[in-house]
Known about the structure:
The protein is mainly beta and 522 residues long. Among the domains are: 1-41 and 417-511, no CATH class; 48-119, no CATH class; 144-240 and 248-261, no CATH class. Strands 2-1-53-52-51-50-49 form a 7-stranded antiparallel sheet, with no helix packed on it. The chain has a 4-stranded antiparallel sheet with strand order 3-4-5-6, with no helix packed on it. Strands 7-8-9-10 form a 4-stranded antiparallel sheet, with no helix packed on it. The chain is flat and about 80 Å long. It starts with a helix and ends in a 21-residue tail after the last strand.
Amino acid sequence: MISNSSRFFLATLISLLFSSSVFAQTWDVYDLQGKLKSRAIFERIEVLSETVITGKNQDGLFLLSRELKPMVDLKGTEIYQYLAPWILVKGPQGIGAFHEYGQLVMPLEYEEIQTYFNYLLGRKGNEFWLFERGNGKTTALGTLEEAKLTKNGMVIIKKGESYYLPLSNDPERPYQLLQENDGKYLLAKESSGYGIINIDGDYVMDPVVDQLEHTRGDYFYGFDENQYLLIKGDEVQSDVAYNSYHKITKEGDLMLEYIHGKLRRVMEEDGILFDGVGMESVQLIEPGLYNVRFRENKLGLLSKKGWLVQPVAEADWIKGGSEGLFPAGKNGKSGFINQNGDWTIEPNFAETGIFSEQRATFRNSDSWGLIDREGRIISEAKWDEIKEFSSGTAIAKAGGQYFILNSSGQTLNELGFDQVCRLKEGYFLVEKEGKRGLLNSTGQEILPIEFENIQVEKPGFFIVRKQGLSGVLNEKADVIFPVHYQQVVPDWAGNQILVKELYVPVVIQEPEPTNGKRKKGA
């Protein structure tokens, strides 16, 4: 029988072994030539940026030096988010924030923290706090319906039915509406009308306009009394870029001006894009592209820079194109026209795509094929989908499988893949039955399809994962780091590679008894 003291000793030993298996993980640090520099003990290490490295061990979560030495206790259990220069850390009581230099600026007790370079906005329930980096102070904003930190660093709050700008020169001024957009200026509304506010919270257009809405960037479209306005925001005083007593309609991104009831001008955000007599209709094809139809059924394709296709084509529609050719339709069929409005490929197809590397897609049924610039069929229509060509290849799909095509429409892989992804480095990441491999830009195999994951860090440096373990291979599938690590983390700014060793627990075995008796001291 095992005594109670022995049971306690074994339980304690097992507990220590388990604790070690969780926290006592060895990280080897190598230089880029493969020379071992140092070792560190951490459960997890994360390289968040060129200057920010964090690590977690049995003592806590830390901001680390380049040599992986703990510098700052982050007081939490995990990194919640890194938005330079702020490190958001999660702990048992909530989320907090550190500056990347190590300063704790908001304790780990918030439900949500919004970030901007100079400000942090924290929330607990309906209560909000604002940290200002300039003075290092945190201010209570109180209980609010809403609070928002905009992308330009403005704070908008809502109390009751009114909005406020607590960082402005008049923080108690109520607004009926404060609306952020993709530009630098807020759309504001008061009882007197609409106006425009800069990032300091000051009006650059007083709230006197009857109607106002944001269009794009720093531009606005408005109506005041009996005139239409196109306005450009400015830090000091907004500019009325265009005004007219004639009607200007706005439907989405399409603005048209009518003179004496007749369509006369296509407008852009700050004025006239095109002024033409004889226009009958304008259709927005995609942002910045317009089909403009004139009398005698002439159609042109207009862009922000002028005519892409001269308005002489006898077509029902023209789409944005490439390589000097534009998909166009007539009588329910599709072909291509050039910049002069001439048909270079007659409209004989049910649908066409755009040209890429002298090849375009077409279909007459549900399947797609390839044609050249003369309209000759290169590849018969047998594909469910064909993506654009790049560097002489395209990705096509048929029967739920993906293939890589060359410029002649021939497949570079006999057996299809479940997924194919073209990477920015020029490789193809392919997947089959849950396993991944890597091909070069011409479709030749670099790494076989046997890995759970492949991460292309840079050309010739591939972090692979197989049977739960990680390693690094090069373009010849040669081993840089063998596939027996728990994790591989590059630190390119530090010219070093961090590899996490597989933990192997030490097992202490009790000696076997001799002649049925336990050895003394066992």
